[in-house]
UniProtKB/TrEMBL annotation:
<dbReference type="GO" id="GO:0008381">
    <property type="term" value="F:mechanosensitive monoatomic ion channel activity"/>
</dbReference>
<feature type="transmembrane region" description="Helical">
    <location>
        <begin position="12"/>
        <end position="29"/>
    </location>
</feature>
<dbReference type="InterPro" id="IPR045275">
    <property type="entry name" value="MscS_archaea/bacteria_type"/>
</dbReference>
<feature type="domain" description="Mechanosensitive ion channel MscS C-terminal">
    <location>
        <begin position="252"/>
        <end position="336"/>
    </location>
</feature>
<feature type="transmembrane region" description="Helical">
    <location>
        <begin position="137"/>
        <end position="160"/>
    </location>
</feature>
<keyword id="KW-0407">Ion channel</keyword>
<dbReference type="Pfam" id="PF21082">
    <property type="entry name" value="MS_channel_3rd"/>
</dbReference>
<feature type="domain" description="Mechanosensitive ion channel transmembrane helices 2/3">
    <location>
        <begin position="135"/>
        <end position="174"/>
    </location>
</feature>
<dbReference type="InterPro" id="IPR010920">
    <property type="entry name" value="LSM_dom_sf"/>
</dbReference>
<dbReference type="Pfam" id="PF00924">
    <property type="entry name" value="MS_channel_2nd"/>
</dbReference>
<keyword id="KW-0997">Cell inner membrane</keyword>
<feature type="transmembrane region" description="Helical">
    <location>
        <begin position="92"/>
        <end position="116"/>
    </location>
</feature>
<feature type="domain" description="Mechanosensitive ion channel MscS">
    <location>
        <begin position="177"/>
        <end position="241"/>
    </location>
</feature>
<comment type="similarity">
    <text>Belongs to the MscS (TC 1.A.23) family.</text>
</comment>
<keyword id="KW-0406">Ion transport</keyword>
<keyword id="KW-0472">Membrane</keyword>
<dbReference type="InterPro" id="IPR049142">
    <property type="entry name" value="MS_channel_1st"/>
</dbReference>
Amino acid sequence: MEDVWQFIPYPWLIVGGLVSISVTGMYLVKRFVLVQLQSIKRSEGRHVTSILLNSLSKPLSIFILVLNIYLLQYLLLKHELIADQYNKQVDITAQIGIIIALLVFAERFCNQLVVSYADSSDVLRNSQSIIRGTSKLLIISIGSLVILGTLGISITPIVASLGITSLAVALALQPTLENFFSGVQLVIDKPIRVGDFVELDSGEQGFVEKIGWRSTWIKMLPNNIVVMPNSILSQSKVINYYYPEKELSVPVDVGVHYDSDLEHVERVTLEVAKEILHSHKWGISDYDTFVVFHTFDSSSINFTVMLRAEEYFNRFFIKSAFIKALHARYRQEGIVIPYPIRAINTEQEKAEPSNRNTAPP
């Protein structure tokens, strides 16, 4: 067989063709096997085996390349197309490839695990970006040290110098580290969570989209994003309309004429309020609504009706429906909602001439 290679004009092309066929065949086998295994585990949802299979695709591709590097080395050495001195370089390259494959697998597995279980855990859902970023940085750091050791570079001085340089890095990255630890504090303390509707002390309102390692993203009702640094947010006054629960009271201020029968007004108002809470899709039907009279105003007796909505954003629609229904019912019952009135005392406003020397007309 070795004599046959002497008569082949382009042995490099033959070796390259064999390796290419090997790479293609292994890749097709890998894809077929993974697809079959994933179809079996697809019904199990977040099962760890499914996450494991989803994380294997790229690492297996790198591992296939490593195997074919060894195959290429074997063919070239067998037919004396390269010298034996390249064995060490090929071994080092293959080892680095295996390390990279393991690092890629670890990084993808951690990300898939966090994303898969985020819906079932408030901590994971609120800290996805922080956990993924930290795990990625940790994996890259460990992998870099292992690769340096594989290349024959001593990592002991590097590890020793980390203690000296960490102080300088901490001083240089003080704002970044402050935002990072503030984000960790927000995740642990949980004053806000992803999906909560909040109001900042600066007046912006919106839904919490993401709590990142540097900033928190809040999506406002006009569909734009407010990006707040975690260090500022952790020191600010924030109103969370979804904590401890989404339900909230909806006060509606009303005024009636002074000649009104307040008992009748209260009875009619409560009937309308209960009807709205039962019929409206965002009303709380079992809420015990009430009326509180509180002010003798300049032209009306004012009171507050307390309604209940499923969440903050629904309160506008509950209030609108109640006002329309109450206005129509008051008209039927003859209850007057007065216009603002300003009385003018003409007798008091009469002025006597102050200049007595003025000649009569």
